[in-house]
Amino acid sequence: MIQRVRGPRRSVAGSAGLALLAMALGCRASHKHADPAETDPSDGGSTGSAVDAAPPPDEAIPQGPVEEIAARAGHLLEAIGRGDAQLATDILFPRDGWLATRDAPDPGKEWSRRVETPFRRTIRALSRRHADFDRAQVVSFELGRSMVQQSPRRHGWRKPLWTVHESRITFVIDGRTRTLPIREMTAWRGAWYVTRLR
């Protein structure tokens, strides 16, 4: 059974969001997935906070403001502009999430074939046409209107994860407003990730 939730596109913009985006767009180093369970070696292997917070459930739907996805969208535009998919790995559906949620004989190989390789190819293809994307200033990120909760099934998702289609990034380059559609995003542990860029 597939559950659908329809609603207006949700846009992230405003001074707080744009300040965060400006900082994100200023980054020129590789951006990696944030792992809530990652430890800080300086404190003897415990997590960075005084209280260890458990990550959200794998199937948690993202709630509240989505400024952080707008910042990651800035990394995506930068990756396209520079032709380097490594700069946008924080918006790509994580391999460890795929391993934890997919029913496949070799989920790691499937992630490579269905998520990572197409993402890298699309970044390279878009980069050949849009080298100016690294000068983009993000205006807003809009989540698609229809969210669908996938039913667990054989050779598919093992958990009822949420997907959304036709999200888009609105940005400005040299005074001209443009948009970049994202074909499919999937929620994992309360955050949205790209599973199909084009």
Q: How would you characterize the overall build of this protein?
A:
The protein has 198 residues and is an alpha+beta fold. The protein has one domain. Helix content is 29%, strand content 25%. The chain has helices spanning 15-25, 67-82, 95-101, 107-129; strands at residues 3-6, 10-12, 137-143, 146-149, 162-173, 176-188, 191-196. Strands 1, 2, 3, 4, 5, 6 and 7 form a seven-stranded antiparallel beta sheet that branches. Strand 5 (162-173) and strand 6 form a beta hairpin. Helix 1 (15-25) runs parallel beside helix 2, helix 2 crosses helix 4 (107-129) and helix 3 (95-101) crosses helix 4. The radius of gyration is 17 Å and the shape is globular. 32% of the residues are buried. The model is unreliable at 1-8 and 12-50 (pLDDT under 50).
Short description:
A hairpin with a 2-residue loop joins β6 and β7.
List the helices and strands and how they pair.
Blueprint lengths: L2 E4 L3 E3 L2 H11 L41 H16 L12 H7 L5 H23 L7 E7 L2 E4 L12 E12 L2 E13 L2 E6 L2
Antiparallel strand pairs: 1-4, 2-3, 3-5, 4-5, 5-6, 6-7
Helix pairs in contact: 1-2, 2-4, 3-4
